[in-house]
């Protein structure tokens, strides 16, 4: 199975600048069972399967875009084929490629935009899809009280964690609402299905509301094993 580097809690102030780029309508798709990618976040990946080595090589020589998707339940029976994936995913841009022995590599993706799959294509060793970028609400911002309540709730959640100091940079006022919400969605101890639920939210305010509800649930039952329904 393709694996990814464990995403550690953020240890530095986020980089919010993402230069505008033209995203092609047809992109390679990288499906994984345990990763949900968000705009304005970063994702390190270890590439070793032959089909994904080919994908990275083609993307590096082309537009440098890859769409990350979450595999649906039951993927284990057809992992080396084309098991079903969720249609809401995130486009990333390859920021760096570190070649390793035997054709493996480490890459770093920068999250750009959420998108929806319109059609899947299977002509190549890896999956491709025709995608539609999800329209953004203009100047998405959270009301001050919503942001404040989310930060205060997160502070309560982090009190019992040893890595709480690593999050302090995200409490600063100059960190945008989108970076704050998407970074929390990325790094908190949510299940993949819970993160997919966050990604599918209709706009930043709804994502923040879902995230607030989820953190409260985690505070109430920190040892839960049940996925979000």
Give an overview in words.
With 229 residues, the chain is of the alpha+beta class. The chain has 2 domains: 26-133, LON domain-like (Archaeosine Trna-guanine Transglycosylase, Chain: A, domain 4); 144-220. It has 5 helices and 6 strands, in the order E-E-H-E-E-E-E-H-H-H-H. Strands 1-3-4-5-6 form a 5-stranded mixed beta barrel. Strand 5 and strand 6 form a beta hairpin. Helix 2 (144-158) runs parallel beside helix 5 (204-220) and helix 3 runs parallel beside helix 5 (204-220). The longest helix has 17 residues, at 204-220. The radius of gyration is 18 Å and the shape is globular.
Multimeric organization: single chain
- Give the C-alpha Rg: 18 Å
Fraction of residues in helices?
25-40%
Quote the beta fraction: 15-25%
Class based on secondary structure composition and strand pairing: alpha+beta
Largest sheet, in brief, is:
5 strands, mixed, barrel
**Unreliable segments of 5+ consecutive residues:** 225-229
List the secondary-structure elements in sequence, H or E. EEHEEEEHHHH
Biggest sheet: strand arrangement = 1-3-4-5-6
Q: Would you count the extended β strands for me?
A: 6
- The CATH homologous superfamily of the largest domain is named LON domain-like
